[in-house]
UniProtKB/TrEMBL annotation:
<dbReference type="GO" id="GO:0005737">
    <property type="term" value="C:cytoplasm"/>
</dbReference>
<comment type="subunit">
    <text>Homodimer.</text>
</comment>
<keyword id="KW-0808">Transferase</keyword>
<dbReference type="GO" id="GO:0004015">
    <property type="term" value="F:adenosylmethionine-8-amino-7-oxononanoate transaminase activity"/>
</dbReference>
<feature type="binding site">
    <location>
        <position position="274"/>
    </location>
    <ligand>
        <name>substrate</name>
    </ligand>
</feature>
<feature type="binding site">
    <location>
        <position position="391"/>
    </location>
    <ligand>
        <name>substrate</name>
    </ligand>
</feature>
<dbReference type="GO" id="GO:0009102">
    <property type="term" value="P:biotin biosynthetic process"/>
</dbReference>
<comment type="pathway">
    <text>Cofactor biosynthesis; biotin biosynthesis; 7,8-diaminononanoate from 8-amino-7-oxononanoate (SAM route): step 1/1.</text>
</comment>
<feature type="binding site">
    <location>
        <position position="245"/>
    </location>
    <ligand>
        <name>pyridoxal 5'-phosphate</name>
    </ligand>
</feature>
<dbReference type="InterPro" id="IPR049704">
    <property type="entry name" value="Aminotrans_3_PPA_site"/>
</dbReference>
<comment type="function">
    <text>Catalyzes the transfer of the alpha-amino group from S-adenosyl-L-methionine (SAM) to 7-keto-8-aminopelargonic acid (KAPA) to form 7,8-diaminopelargonic acid (DAPA). It is the only aminotransferase known to utilize SAM as an amino donor.</text>
</comment>
<dbReference type="InterPro" id="IPR015421">
    <property type="entry name" value="PyrdxlP-dep_Trfase_major"/>
</dbReference>
<feature type="binding site">
    <location>
        <position position="52"/>
    </location>
    <ligand>
        <name>substrate</name>
    </ligand>
</feature>
<keyword id="KW-0963">Cytoplasm</keyword>
<dbReference type="InterPro" id="IPR015424">
    <property type="entry name" value="PyrdxlP-dep_Trfase"/>
</dbReference>
<dbReference type="InterPro" id="IPR005814">
    <property type="entry name" value="Aminotrans_3"/>
</dbReference>
<keyword id="KW-0663">Pyridoxal phosphate</keyword>
Length: 428
């Protein structure tokens, strides 16, 4: 990008979580292939972020591109009210097949946050159908469920960007987040706060909403599967529906197709997004149990009241179908477990680094928690110069690379992290 273009960008375009007066530097990407992003100056950098957990098979994938081209020749879009189409039907069929038996009814939307709004609206209507005005949700602190209002209202109330809007948000219940990490011993005390709230307020709680196993934006923590098992028992006991937000973790990232499989339990509502189109188009789904769908449908209102304009977009559904076909070849399992092994080899030794508090690895997720907050501008410049794209936040340097990354490319990512840790000027 020439200077004029970059200045135009700075003056006129909002970027995620950014300022219009003091924007962080932006890099112009002109194309992408495999694990590489190509910058406007011709430099190629390895994407360690999979475009925020989504581009799991890498960029410009021939099978995904072919599916898009095939669909575009038929139609790019058609309204979903009163109309259906083969790509949506095929995708719903695949999703129902891939998910546990009780998850049976698919609602398509355009983004993860909206999939969460939909799940929350479903439970509001579910309780109304049962003659109860329940509206309070129970979740963990340090969660993240998106940037729209209901999603913000169940995201961490204190430490998140959302505290700015707190006075506008519905009030929900927040239990202490679990401390026992995925690989640690389970500590029964982890659920004391959750159990106390659910027991005291069981007749008011409309639903429990959680990110299973991985708390993402809230701190990149991996908690113990036993925690989910016990929560499922509590939810069943008090007849409170359970929503799982697998928008980040779905489609293999943690080593299981869905993170809740680590705990061998199933939710009543499942939200999927991000990797569902393997990083090509925006799409999300909210899949509910037959019981929830039927209860809503048997109510006086009788309908579920949501319907985005681009609902079930054929291009997005077509490419999601192709993504799932690739996943069903099961190469992802080998790819993710290879990445996990190498992340352990390359990153765990950093535990001894004086700048490091913790190193966490699960599936194709590698997290280095630093002593101090990262200076994003200077560290990003260093990473780009080193040929990698890594975007830390707060004191967390993490990577979620495309599953197709090879060991040489992955070691370039991990080496860059190690080198960055050695420079105290990259930390505030
Ligand atoms: C990204 C994310 C969302 C929000 O999805 P968008 O598509 O950005 O709206 C919700 N929950 C989790 C766990 C996420 O990682």
């Amino acid at each position: 990008m020439n200077q004029f273009d970059i200045n135009f960008d700075y003056q006129h375009i909002w970027h995620p979580y950014s300022s219009m007066i003091n924007p962080l530097p932006c890099y112009s990407v002109v194309s992408a292939k495999g694990v590489y992003l190509k910058l406007n100056n011709g430099k190629k950098i390895i994407d360690g972020m999979s475009s925020w957990w989504s581009a799991i098979h890498g960029y410009n994938h021939p099978i995904l591109n072919k599916a898009l081209k095939k669909q575009i020749k038929k139609m790019s879009h058609v309204m979903f009210g009163g109309i259906t189409h083969p790509s949506a039907t095929a995708l719903a069929r695949k999703l129902i097949y891939l998910t546990p038996k009780n998850l049976d009814c698919v609602f398509f939307s355009d983004s993860g946050s909206v999939a969460i709004e939909v799940a929350i609206k479903m439970l509001i209507q579910y309780w109304q159908a049962l003659g109860q005005k329940r509206k309070i949700f129970l979740t963990f602190r340090h969660g993240y469920h998106g940037d729209t209002f209901a999603a913000m209202s169940v995201s961490d109330p204190k430490n998140s960007i959302h505290k700015i809007y707190n006075h506008f948000l519905p009030k929900n219940f927040f239990a202490d987040s679990p401390i026992s990490s995925f690989h640690d011993k389970w500590n029964e005390n982890d659920l004391l706060s959750f159990q106390k709230i659910i027991k005291t307020h069981s007749s008011k709680i409309a639903g429990v909403i959680l990110e299973p196993i991985v708390q993402g934006v809230g701190g990149m923590k991996f908690y113990h599967p036993k925690c989910l098992k016990k929560i499922k028992i509590l939810c069943d006991y008090y007849s409170i529906p359970l929503i799982f937000d697998e928008i980040a973790t779905g489609f293999g990232r943690t080593g299981k197709l869905f993170a809740f499989e680590h705990a061998n339990i199933v939710p009543d509502i499942l939200c999927l997004g991000k990797a569902i189109t393997a990083g090509t188009l925006t799409l999300a789904v909210t899949i509910s149990s037959r019981n929830i769908a039927d209860t809503i449908s048997n109510s006086k209102v009788g309908c579920f009241m949501h319907g985005p304009t681009y609902m079930g977009n054929p291009l997005a559904c077509a490419v999601a179908n192709a993504n799932i076909k690739i996943l069903q070849k099961n190469e992802w399992k080998i790819q993710v477990s290879k990445i996990e092994k190498q992340l352990c080899q390359d990153l765990l030794p950093l535990l001894n680094h004086k700048n490091v508090v913790d190193v966490r690895i699960l599936g194709a997720i590698g997290v280095v928690e630093c002593m101090r907050i990262v200076n994003i501008e200077s560290i990003q410049k260093f990473f780009v110069k080193n040929g990698v794209w890594i975007r830390p936040f707060k004191q967390l340097i993490y990577i979620v690379p495309p599953y197709i990354i090879n060991s040489k490319e992955l070691s370039i990512l991990t080496k860059s992290i190690k080198e960055a840790l050695d420079n105290p000027l990259f930390f505030i």
